[in-house]
Amino acid sequence: xxxxxxxxxxxxxxxxxxxxxxxxxxxxxxxxxxxxxxxxxxxxxxxxxxxxxxxxxxxxxxxxxxxxxxxxxxxxxxxxxxxxxxxxxxxxxxxxxxxxxxxxxxxxxxxxxxxxxxxxxxxxxxxxxxxxxxxxxxxxxxxxxxxxxxxxxxxxxxxxxxxxxxxxxxxxxxxxxxxxxxxxxxxxxxxxxxxxxxxxxxxxxxxxxxxxxxxxxxxxxxxxxxxxxxxxxxxxxxxxxxxxxxxxxxxxxxxxxxxxxxxxxxxxxxxxxxxxxxxxxxxxxxxxxxxxxxxxxxxxxxxxxxxxxxxxxxxxxxxxxxxxxxxxxxxxxxxxxxxxxxxxxxxxxxxxxxxxxxxxxxxxxxxxxxxxxxxxxxxxxxxxxxxxxxxxxxxxxxxxxxxxxxxxxxxxxxxxxxxxxxxxxxxxxxxxxxxxxxxxxxxxxxxxxxxxxxxxxxxxxxxxxxxxxxxxxxxxxxxxxxxxxxxxxxxxxxxxxxxxxxxxxxxxxxxxxxxxxxxxxxxxxxxxxxxxxxxxxxxxxxxxxxxxxxxxxxxxxxxxxxxxxxxxxxxxxxxxxxxxxxxxxxxxxxxxxxxxxxxxxxxxxxxxxxxxxxxxxxxxxxxxxxxxxxxxxxx
Length: 635
Fold this sequence. Notes:
By secondary structure, this protein is α+β, with helices and mostly antiparallel strands. The chain has two domains: 46-240, Protein-arginine deiminase, central domain (Immunoglobulin-like), CATH 2.60.40; 245-633, L-arginine/glycine Amidinotransferase, Chain A (5-stranded Propeller). Helix content is 17%, strand content 28%. It has eleven helices and 42 strands. The strands form 14 sheets. A six-stranded antiparallel sheet has the order 5-7-13-9-10-11, with no helix packed on it. Strands 6-15-14-8-12 form a five-stranded mixed sheet. Strand 31 (475-478) and strand 32 form a beta hairpin. The two termini are 34 Å apart.
């Protein structure tokens, strides 16, 4: 059947031509006519959402419109950014804040019914549970084709400043009526979420919104159609877009650091310049552990910039917003000014950028809730199980509300949980990381390896380098004493306690790696060991003895690696040369071309003696539009 283009109510749509007893209605300038028997004009009671995820509302969205699966189903954003820059998340406003905010609304179309009888009233309804979590706006001037001039009125769902956190305090309206003229021309609505799924105040909500549209005549009797012969109701579903975590495989465009340490900042600046990544130096926040005090992620939906064009598929794009999550506690006094959300609200939140609190109460939790303990395994397929957008991995004892939020997003979970309780800081990034590789999988696992480090030391010792010093001339802490921490290869290898510590550390890292391997199906040659010794800093808690190079910043084919301060082996730093050979050459087929990563060694000694490394001092973020469609990651 030939399809005709229609640009009704400012939203371009494909509609099927009407056929009644052999009569074909034609348009778009066609002069052809067909004669034959005629019947009464069709009754059109139809609600359309973007079921096929192409960013266009059209006849192709009719099939499966009342289902939501991995293959089809419409979605909408939790509208928690701040497009008008007034310091209030848009979900807490009662208005649509101009053109940018209009893009944050997923459109709902009431199909035009040109021959609708006068006095007909239509009713759009949302299910009772969802009305607490969404807001629906009516487009007041659908004849205006310029989205920048669109005017909206909130008409259903949660009306009023509902808040993206805490208990909502607003009016809930499950229905909105449309008049005869609106049915004739096709009313347009926009839907936004007032919060993400998985927050405490979204308990009981599946994230799916059930929509229905019906019409009644001037006497109030329901109008039945051939498509809806029983009750006259047309049904459709849409679902709130999930939050997705960024990770090492993310297409990164920005790296943050709140460091005040000049050597690190200088090295990081040069590395990101070479990688052509924007560097955002945070000057006004006292916590220099940038990876830890907030997490970066995003939400997105399908969109189309030119649905009325000749080739609308060419104007498809992914529209969304970055959504940062603050840690539940900050450093300093337990006041709002020292809480991470205060920095995010003032500096991260804006147009297409948001900050959302997961926790129920501020100033709770511990180091496990810092985001160095939360990471993302890159995309993988293992047998029948696949995670096209990666899988969240986290360590010991994170807060329950964070766990619940991750699990509710569906796409990158359920998360994989590994034991980090043996580590002094307790973070996943102290032992595991990921780098791109020119392989079928596209990435490899970096893991810390005390066994490898010991073997390298034994080899150097056998070559006559036993007197060479690690950490030569460096000052650090032994207990609470700030002192010279240099040590010879011979002395390290002769220390029985040191050997015991690293045997247990090797076993603990092995346990973490075994879980990742069982989950992902990694082969032995997809795991790259990184030489690292750990030391017991009290009570069996282990900490990197020398800079932990697994704890690096990875952006594309570039790595910001901690300066190693290894022993001088034949005129070169033995650890540094090993990493250049291991990571920066074709040996392990790393990098997008397999020729190796570009390594940037960064002096992070101040961080190392404070119990962290380069990765802990940075945080990376990407544009939603650059990421793979999340709806392709549903299982």
